Amino acid sequence: MGETIKFQAHSVTDTHTDEPTIHYSTSSSGVSSYKNVGGKESLTSSGVTRATSRAKDAGVMIGGLSIHPDEVEDFLREIEGEQAEAEDETEQADDEVAESTAFEESANIVLNDLDKGDLANAVNLAVKGELNEDNIARAVSSLGLGDRDSAIEVGNNVIESLTESFEKLAQAEGMDKHTAWHAMMDWNRTEAGKAVQDWVATGGVDAERLKHAISEGLNAYGKPENEALVNVLKEDGYEVKRSQSGGLIIKGNGIADWMHWREFRNAYKQ
Fold first, then answer.
1. Do 222 and 265 form a contact (C-beta atoms < 8 A)?
2. CB atoms within 10 A of CB 237
3. Residues 6+ apart with CB under 8 A from 182
4. Is the model's pTM score more than 0.70?
5. Is 98 in a helix, a strand, or coil?
6. 3-state SS assignment for residue 4
7. Residue 21 belongs to what H/E stretch?
8. pLDDT value at position 138?
9. CA 162 vs CA 111, 123, 205: distances in Å
10. Residues 149/140, Cβ–Cβ less than 8 Å
11. pLDDT tens per residue across span 127-175
12. Strand partners, 25
């Protein structure tokens, strides 16, 4: 089988019956799961498999475990199956996380090949709103592309990939990418720039600092003095006014009571 499984009996119950229940445990990899095959119960949790055999004649020894001959094959097959299934689920979950958080592979290949100083400078220019075509071409100059148009095309492809990833983070906060970006920059351009730098440097995998910057930016964005936001909310059919404490409160479109901006925004978080 390629693996040695050792069992240890840790208790016996129902001794007053003709079929006492013997409880065994073994150290084994796996996740929390419960199975019952042919009267054999097994529970795997936190790397420990506990098994129960309700056999009147448990005479076959397997690594110290005495079970009924009819249960042996199913017993071992089930344990091996649980471990393989757990490994597959873990691998699949890791792949899904990586797919949902990281940039596209093609974008990461380009980012990894770029001069780190050029890349950091390009991010700073993007934060300042100064990433024009000339700056994009300079940012990818270390790739040695033949002409300016090719450099701009490659740079724009990377920017598009990053924009799509940023949009997912914004949508998770209940906002579109443009509002989230501007709110974050208005909140604290320095901290936002650092968050974007960290995000890009890790290929989009480490987004916690950026998520925090987006959230804080959007919280600060909701104020009565923000005419652009107030006008958009009114155009969408909401009533908007200043609260007694000076904050922004909203109701309408199914919201019966006045709701503060943070409460309103949280209602639309994913």
1. yes
2. 9
3. 221
4. no
5. helix
6. coil
7. strand 21-27
8. 92
9. 11, 11, 12
10. no
11. 999 999 999 999 999 988 878 999 999 999 999 999 999 999 999 998 8
12. 8, 50
